[in-house]
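For the sake of clarity, the format in which proteins appear in this thesis is described at this point. Each number in the token line that follows is a code from a learned vocabulary of backbone shapes. One such record is shown here in full, so that the layout can be seen directly:
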Amino acid sequence: MGEGTGGSLRAGPGSPKPPEPWDRPQTRPRLWLGPLTPEPAAALSPQEERWCAALPEALQGRYRGSRSQLRQRLAQLLARPAAELPLHSPPGQPPSLGEGLGFVSLSHSREQLLLAWSPWPIGVDLEWAARPLLAEAVARRFFPPEEWHDLQTLPPEQRQRAVLESWVRKEAAIKWHRGGIAHDLRHWSWHRLSGALVHLQHGWCPSSACRLHDGWLCAVVGEAAPLAIWG
């Protein structure tokens, strides 16, 4: 799948100054896509263990696996012990890193996990590209009228794919600015021809990219998104 990008007319709330090359161990976003395994790749923090234990049993493996893999990837990237990383990642909330170590995001669908790190705020989302979707109903209900009218010009098969791509970009954007789907989804508009992703209320226009990896549609939103390093 080709990439689409949006220019940063306004980067977004609280966007930090882009780092100089010596400010961080890495200066490009990093993305990792792989299976979500319940076996821990790295030990969780005591607080994460408590959060995990409080979850329904059916959700514990997903939480443990995703946070453990995130710690493992960050430990390798930042050259710090996984257990010592200042990662704050409560269930159902966007994860965050302390001590100026950057920004993180994660998304999982079925048994697949997408992890991200960046020197700047970042958001990611993924969906199975062949997922059954009532594209017309979804777009009519959740997309801005201008975007919906544009999507109607596409043949049904192309429309299905365009709606799914728009959806994952918007979910990634909502994670990028730490918003909420219920409040923000209808305010995000994706211009499929230009690739611009725009928040209609605030005017934010962050960079974004969307790629197809092994049948998974993966979206990333944030500074330098199209330049992210995969794997």
In short: Residues 125-230 form a domain with the Ribosomal Protein L22; Chain A fold (CATH 3.90.470.20). Residues 57-78 form the longest helix (22 residues). The CA atoms of residues 52 and 60 lie 6 Å apart. The first strand starts at residue 30 and ends at 35.
